[in-house]
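ENTRY TYPE: paired fold submission
RECORD: A
CONTENT: sequence, then structure tokens
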Amino acid sequence: AEVSTQSTGDTRDFIDDDPTGNKAIWDRGLLNGASQKLDMLCMFHIGECVSYLDLATLIPGGSEALVYTTLSGTIGMFVPFTSREDIDFFQHLEMHMRNDSAPICGRDHLTYRSSYIPVKGTVDGDLCEIYNSLDPAKRRAIASELDRLPGEVSKKLEDMRTTFAF
């Protein structure tokens, strides 16, 4: 399972005060708990063991994304949305794709991505990309539910892909 977290402001201040980290070794939190805590931002089951994780920019002038590789060779990335409109659009597209596209292995998509803990704060881009391979009638039906033309939906998917990767 993949968990993306963010340190709290207190932790960042603590690191600024002690960049060597020596103080953190001996510091104890409340009741011998961890002295630095992380906030849960999103949850997403990748399905494989992640072997490398890095914050990277894949194209010159592009935005940063969290890139990962797995033991079996999969390369994936977590990209941030820039606007609330994009979040709403891709969440609705993902919802329609879950309902309208047949599961590949007979397993419900949401059940798979929530294998260990419920999906939180993410949109599955791989599932959204299946939109372009649907038959034209289904693409028109989904686009009409999103109040867009099929070409606009495909363009939005392409724009998201080219902003971060290729």
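RECORD: B
CONTENT: sequence, then structure tokens
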Amino acid sequence: MWLSRRLLSHGALLSAIPQPAGTAGMVNGLVWSNRSGGLLRQRRLAGKKPPCNSGYVQSETVRHFSSAKNLYNVSYRELKDLLESKAIQLIDVREKWEIGEHGKIPESINIPLSEVVEALQMSPEHFKKIYNQDIPSKSDHLVFVCMAGVRSKQAVAAAKSLGFSRAQNYIGGFKEWAECESSGKT
């Protein structure tokens, strides 16, 4: 498999030449490799002792490089503020049994991840009948939540592909919400 990507690293746009699978390179302290169809990013942290022999202390699979803050993620505090202002529509993409077992964030609407694309394309009448809410418009501020932020990230990508430009992900998920709420964190 050949890979051709543009890498954004510390504000500089770099063109990566096609690389065969299993290859790697380094750009401004970020290591990239093409393994298993994804990019692996590892960052050297100055002054930190590495936990393994690789010399790197952070590793994550990513689609692209960027040193900019991820504008699609919402923190617990930001979500609380948004809910208080009633400026968002919160969509929980967990399965119905998960909500029954673990609970839900007040004011959220449950649309399982497998139904998100179809639901966001329904007629307003059909959406209201199934979900008992008005269908969001493409300009509405949507925040997606799941248990730990993984499925909700997929839902954000799906919503953005459908033209919902203000879709965001509550990265902490219901797990963080429940922990913060039970500890009385504000």
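NOTES ON RECORD B: The longest helix spans residues 150-161. Helices lie at 76-85, 96-102, 116-119, 124-131, 150-161, 173-183.
STATUS: closed
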